[in-house]
Amino acid sequence: MSDLPDLPYIADKPAPRESVDALRARIPGWGVDLDPADRPAVPREQHAPEGTGAHWDFPDRQPELSPRERSIEHSMLTPVFGTVAPLRGVSGAVRRYAYRYSEARAAHWLLLIAGDRIDSVGSHVKSFATLRPDNPLTETGLLAEFRYQGLRSRIGRRRVDGYHAWLDPIIVAGPWVVAGIVTVKLAGKLLSAARR
């Protein structure tokens, strides 16, 4: 076990790198709950790996059949990871680039959001090539606002989401309105060009 990296994916509880006395001396308040008698959860909180069924020191690694994005904070990929939504296209490239930055930096999360928006726009555009294109009136919940008294449920109730509710129409309907304006302008230019 000593040749394994110091990661939480091991069956046994890892020993602290510093002694208890050194940690207490360095960090005020460290270890106040070290004695199980001082913990409110005791005896419910127990470290009993034999009861979990884990029979390994380090779990078998899932084969990485295609490159998987990973955080730069970790030296290796977790033993088990998801494969149902592999990265693809421009949005996948943006998301993969986001993992060059630490999770502590805004660039990481902003790039992930940008990748998500690119994927969303691409999915909407792709839906128009199908027999069932996206319908913003039904899929954005706009009709439910009228059917289920959405406005009345927000006014005078001091709901937390009321503070940003004014942004919802802009965020939800804004891209559709902009796309509609762009489409109409492009169609007008194409028609005028065809008439010449």
How many whole angstroms does the radius of gyration measure?
Answer: 27 Å
Termini gap: 78 Å
Mean pLDDT: 84
Q: Characterize the biggest β-sheet.
A: none
Order of helices and strands: HHHHHHH
Count every beta strand, where a strand is a DSSP E run of 2 or more residues.
Answer: 0
Walkthrough of the structure:
The protein is mainly alpha-helical and 196 residues long. 42% of the residues lie in helices and 0% in strands. Helix 2 runs antiparallel to helix 3. The longest helix is centred in the C-terminal third of the chain and has 29 residues, at 167-195. The model has no long low-confidence stretch (mean pLDDT 84).
Write the layout of secondary structure elements.
Elements: H1 20-26, H2 89-98, H3 106-127, H4 136-139, H5 142-147, H6 150-154, H7 167-195
Helix pairs in contact: 2-3
Briefly, what is this?
The protein is mainly alpha-helical and 196 residues long.
Keywords:
196 residues, mainly alpha
